[in-house]
Amino acid sequence: AQSVTQPDIHITVSEGASLELRCNYSYGATPYLFWYVQSPGQGLQLLLKYFSGDTLVQGIKGFEAEFKRSQSSFNLRKPSVHWSDAAEYFCAVGVGEYGNKLVFGAGTILRVKS
Amino acid sequence: EPEVTQTPSHQVTQMGQEVILRCVPISNHLYFYWYRQILGQKVEFLVSFYNNEISEKSEIFDDQFSVERPDGSNFTLKIRSTKLEDSAMYFCASSADQGWGTQYFGPGTRLLVL
Q1: pLDDT digit string (tens) for A47-76?
Q2: Facing B42 at nearest CB: one of A45, A96, A104
Q3: Percent helix, percent strand, percent coil in chain B, to nearest 5
Q4: Checking DSSP bridges between strand A101-104 and strand A44-50, what pairing results, if any?
Q5: Cβ–Cβ below 8 Å for A101 and B103
Q6: What confidence score (pLDDT) does residue B64 get?
Q7: A66 to chain B nearest CA, in Å?
Q8: Which of B45, B59, B91, B98 to mutate to test the interface with A (most CBs of A within 10 A)?
Q9: Is B112 exposed, middle or buried (0-12, 13-18, 19+ CB in 10 A)?
């Protein structure tokens, strides 16, 4: 069955430090992969997505993610975290015939300390 | 920037009552979705909807649930006879395209069944 694992429930980083959020997926076909961010009281906002092509994808707010098929991973990175990045981050894989049924990971809560 | 809106933001209901959760998708979008997140659990796909019919539904989406696009702007989720376990955050999403399109999420409706 399709699944997404985000091993870290909480992560705390200092402002200005680099960030990597881990995501592993289980899906038999070519995955459509997404990272969403949710701030309190807000909906899920798409940061970036991977469908095919270049395995390093750039997103909004300075985020990037790298698809590694051999590791079934799609880790999210940012070189320098800002206090406004504090939020919950969700990795998802699109499954089904058109990849439009999203299967989410449990989320990682990012705390940024000054 | 266009956004998906949902009403109400919070709803409290008694077990066995019917509830209708409302969503206004982005105006030129054609594909609509409902997801839910039970407290402490993952965001789960419920249903996708296109051209006035359900495209796909999960095993969660049983006969107690129904969706409707009653007019050109609203998209609703009805739960006929609520159970305690229906307490969750319900997210509506819409996309312009089916497989490759980004799903834009609303802020959610928090439903509490007593």
Answers
A1: 999 988 889 999 999 999 999 999 999 999
A2: A104
A3: 5, 50, 45
A4: unpaired
A5: no
A6: 95
A7: 19
A8: B45
A9: middle
φ, ψ of residue B78 to 5 degrees: the values are -110, 135
Instruction: Decide if A62 touches B, using CB distance below 8 A.
Output: no
Partners of residue B45 in chain A, C-beta under 8 Å: 101-103
A4/chain B closest Cα distance in angstroms? 10
How do residues B46-78 score in pLDDT, each as one tens digit? 999 998 999 999 999 999 999 999 887 899 999
Taking CA–CA distances from B94, the nearest residue in chain A reads A100
User: Predicted confidence band at B45 (pLDDT cuts at 50, 70, 90)?
Assistant: very high
* Residue written as token pair 């049924």: A101
Closest Cα in chain A, distance from residue B2 (Å):
13
Torsion of CA A57, A58, A61, A62, to 10 degrees: 110
Q: Report H helices in chain B.
A: none
Given a contact cutoff of 8 angstroms between Cβ atoms, the answer to whether B58 and B47 are in contact is yes
Residue A56 Cα distances to A73, B24, B102, angstroms: 12, 34, 18
